[in-house]
User: Fold this.
Amino acid sequence: MDYGAEWEEAWYRHVKTWKPDDKHNKYVYPQDMDLTQPFRTVQEQTDDPYPPNLKLVCDTANHDREADTVMEWKPSGRWPEYLTECQILSRTERLDGNDKEASTVSYFYNVSLWHEYYEDETYIDYDVPQSAIGFVDGPYQSDQHLANAFRHPMVFPEDMTPPQWLL
Assistant:
């Protein structure tokens, strides 16, 4: 797609002069996080926090519930539509299989849901499997919001614009 000479010149100028800023050096893409490692609890994150642009999210079907409830986790079956911001309260390890030598460890979590939105209420899911937890960019924290991201209007040539659009 051709956005015009002005856009192209601005792009080449940006590429030639771009330098990372402090926030860029701390930015981590959600997909670059290792989801095979155990997730850190809130307490563990005081000493070893996740990158500031990331939020933990959990897939849960437990949306219709009363405040101050503790429920066994149920999958929504609608990933990523039902992702909910969460915090890891605690983690347990379980061995898969009977042979301790050949067994693998699975992690299950107790999580607090919607903690930033409902400060006076608690919503806790327990037995949340590792596979139901992931990372996303926090609001206005993706790489497109970095101060040194490329921004320039994309001009659509007037001669390619349908006449009805020009009215």
About this structure: Strands lie at 54-59, 69-72, 83-96, 104-113, 123-129, 133-137. The radius of gyration is 23 Å. The chain has a mean pLDDT of 87. The CA atoms of residues 97 and 103 lie 5 Å apart.
